[in-house]
From TrEMBL:
Pathway entry: Amino-acid biosynthesis; L-tryptophan biosynthesis; L-tryptophan from chorismate: step 3/5
The protein's name: N-(5'-phosphoribosyl)anthranilate isomerase
Keyword Amino-acid biosynthesis: yes
NCBIfam families listed in its UniProt record: PRK01222.1-1
PANTHER family assigned to the protein according to its UniProt record, in alphabetical order: N-(5'-PHOSPHORIBOSYL)ANTHRANILATE ISOMERASE
Cited InterPro entries: Aldolase_TIM, PRAI_dom, RibuloseP-bd_barrel, TrpF_fam
Species per Swiss-Prot/TrEMBL record: Acetobacter oryzoeni
EC code(s) of this entry: 5.3.1.24
Residue stretches making up the N-(5'phosphoribosyl) anthranilate isomerase (PRAI) domain: 8-205
CDD domains (alphabetical): PRAI
Family label: Belongs to the TrpF family.
Xref: SUPFAM superfamilies: Ribulose-phoshate binding barrel (SSF51366)
Length: 213
């Protein structure tokens, strides 16, 4: 990772101030959540309006939970997403990537080193903690992964670290795990679904700054 800037994804955008902060401070990806149980859920029309304000090279990621083709088609008719982020089976993820002609990222919840996947059949995997037993959604629960599980882990594919990250801990997380990219949602919010521009600025800066030992 020497000399390579850590990639940053800000997920769960619902309003203009947060999106504009992502543009201003140089996020690599912004995420829209198309899962109705999430406090960060956004309609395709709302996402279209926000996406029209994106400038530069920021890529648009749509997050879906076990979507059928109809759901994906309805959203893509409104929003030209660059990437589809999925909670689904590996087989279904490959099928969706082929059918819709867009890169797919698959979210992989882990609790131990044995859960770390050896292979990746889509563009990228998101490594995050397993949700609580009674959680109503598979991700976005503000849980922090045990980063030591990833110390020295060097898979032969693209991946991203997610789960419980915030401006205060992201530099240490990158230092311990060697994550080439990081994903944050609730960790840069002032209220559920409402992003803090200041927290976004600090998160992006700290993700790309080495941890102080």
């Amino acid at each position: 990772m020497d000399g390579v800037q850590t990639g940053v994804k800000i997920c769960g955008l619902t309003e203009e101030a947060g999106l504009e902060a992502c543009v201003e401070y140089g996020a690599d990806w912004i995420g829209f959540v198309f899962f109705e149980r999430s406090p960060r859920y956004i309609s395709a029309l709302q996402a279209k309006a926000l996406a029209s304000r994106i400038t530069g090279s920021i890529r648009k990621v749509g997050l879906f939970v076990r979507p059928d083709d109809t759901v994906l088609e309805r959203v893509l008719d409104q929003v030209d997403l660059d990437i589809l982020q999925l909670y689904t089976t590996p087989e279904r993820a490959v099928q969706i990537q082929a059918k819709f002609g867009r890169p797919v990222w698959s979210s992989i919840p882990v609790a131990s080193q044995a859960d770390l996947p050896r292979l990746c059949t889509v563009e990228r995997l998101l490594i995050e903690p397993k949700p609580p037993v009674h959680a109503t959604r598979p991700g976005g629960n503000a849980q922090q992964l045990n980063w030591d599980l990833l110390h020295g882990w060097q898979p032969g594919y693209s991946w991203m670290l997610a789960g419980g990250l915030n401006p205060e801990n992201v530099s240490q997380a990158v230092a311990i795990t060697g994550a080439p990219a990081v994903d944050v949602s609730s960790g840069v919010e002032s209220a559920p679904g409402i992003k803090s521009p200041d927290a976004i600025a600090r998160f992006i800066h700290n993700a790309r700054s080495p941890a102080v030992s």
